[in-house]
Each structure stands twice: as C-alpha cells, then as structure tokens.
Amino acid sequence: MSLEIIEVTKRFGQATAVDHLTLTVPEGEMFGLLGANGAGKTTTFRMILGLLLPTEGVIRWQGEPIDYSKGHLIGYLPEERGLYPKLKVQEQLLYLGRLRGMKKTDILPEIDRWLERFHIRDYANKRVEELSKGNQQKIQFIAAVLHRPKLLILDEPFSGLDPVNVELLKEAVLDLKRNGTTIVFSSHRMEHVEELCEHVCILRRGRAVVAGALRELKRSFGKQILVIQGDGPFEELARFPGVLQWKRTAEGVRLQIANEETAQAILGHIAGKVAVRLFALEEPSLNDIFIEKVGAAYE
C-alpha cells in the first residue's frame, strides 16, 4: 500500500497554498517533496498528518483516510524544533513515547539504543536547552522515530548538523527505509535529496511542476551538463552556439548545453588553445532541474 494525495487543494481565505496536488508515494520508498519557501510543502505535510483538512481532495494511507486513529503509525520531524527546553532528554523522550501509546518498558530500551547510536548517551539526564543545536536535532529525530512509525515525514532533517552528523543521520534514515518505513523528505540541500530519494516532486506556488522517478526526470530533462577544468580563459564560451548557461567554477567552467554535438564543437574550438585537465559530459543534477523549474518565479 502507499500514501496517496489525490487532487488536494488547501485555501486560506483567498490564498491557495496547495493547488490540485496529486502524488503517490510507494510504500517503503523515500520521496522528496521540494520547493522554495512558501511553495506549499509544510501545508502538505500538515494535511498528511491530519493537522489541517484539505479544502478539496483526499489523502489516504494504506487505502484509508488519515485521522487521529492513525497517529501511532506516523512520525514527524518538523523544521522548527518542538522540544521542551527545561525537560531532561530521557524524560522528554519517555513522555513523547507514552503519547504515542508505547509502554515505558518498551520506550527505555529504544531510547538507549538511539542515544548510543548517535553518540549522545551521556546527555540522557541533561536538559534540552543545555544541548547544542545539532544534538537537539538528534533528539528531535529520535522523538519522531521512537515508536517505529510506518510513515515518516522529515522536514529539513539535517538542519544544524555538521557534516559528520549529517552522515550519521543519513545512515539512520536509510536503515529505517531498509526496514520498510515509507519516508517523505524535504530539504533545501538538493544533493541530499538526490542521494536518498527515488521519487521527487517539485512544488511551485502550490502546484507540482515536476513529479516522478528521479532517474527518469534526469533523462527527460533534455539538456546536457559539460564540465571543463583547465587554465582558461573560458569566457568566450558563454556566447558559443548551443551554450544555454555558463558558470565559472574554481577549476574552470560548468556549461549547460543543448546537445552532445555542442560539446564536440566546443572541444574542437578549444583544442590547442588551452590546457584542459577535464572535459566531461554529466547528467543534469536535481539542483539544475530545480533551478530550471522554480528559478523563473524569481525573474
């Protein structure tokens, strides 16, 4: 079974936050929901959780509408932390686990397991306000998964984490997926989404402008990325026929080009003129697709 969002619209007065959104999130997969600020991601999350009711449309999990009776099946890590700063870590997690219907005898081993995994066992009896932002984020994550949800919603899960702890949390998320958890994931870091998600949807003003399997979306993008590293100058390539975008990098340039024939023409043009260390065609990144589909909103 899967998470189904069917022709969902959410209006607040005259403003439309989500506009006829239809998505299917396959069970046991990780799905990236992306968009600029104000695109409708958080509103969509709150409707999935049952905190907001759609103005139109329906949201189903395992074939049934989501309501409070499904609360124990769903985990949520919000972008804004919702922890009690004066409570100690273990007290807080115990309280939140009980709210999810867990027994104390089941909660305590789970708390120990997660604190050990995230290397923060010594913080069990510290107040949340005494922890760094990164460690608070780890506690927020543990609170979201303590009850072993079947559906997990992660809104900017890597916020406040250094690179080492990002990798630690990534591996935890992947383990949950391997164990069958369906995950809906949002991040402004496109490389994280690209690494973790099989399917993505990009929202713009509440509408889906891109949706589908990430691999297929890249293949259908219709543009190539040419990376050249060398000792330039490469400025003249900005006006070269078939070059759609030109961007300077630390090692050379990164070009968006119309087709492979353009790459061959560029190679012939620069051969013998500059010392080239790397000349490579790459598939478009999710960041390229995002900018193409959402960037127009800022022009």
UniProtKB/TrEMBL annotation:
Name the UniProt record assigns to this protein: ABC transporter (ATP-binding protein) (Na+ exclusion)
Gene Ontology molecular function: ATP binding; ATP hydrolysis activity
A Pfam family the protein falls into: ABC_tran
Organism superkingdom: Bacteria
Keyword Magnesium: no
Keywords: ATP-binding, Nucleotide-binding, Transport
Domain ABC transporter: 3-230
UniProt similarity note: Belongs to the ABC transporter superfamily.
Cited InterPro entries: AAA+_ATPase (IPR003593), ABC_transporter-like_ATP-bd (IPR003439), ABC_transporter-like_CS (IPR017871), ABC_transporter_ATP-binding (IPR050763), DrrA1/2-like_C (IPR025302), P-loop_NTPase (IPR027417)
PROSITE patterns: ABC_TRANSPORTER_1, ABC_TRANSPORTER_2
Transmembrane segments: none
Matches recorded under PANTHER family: ABC TRANSPORTER ATP-BINDING PROTEIN (PTHR42711), ABC TRANSPORTER ATP-BINDING PROTEIN NATA (PTHR42711:SF5)
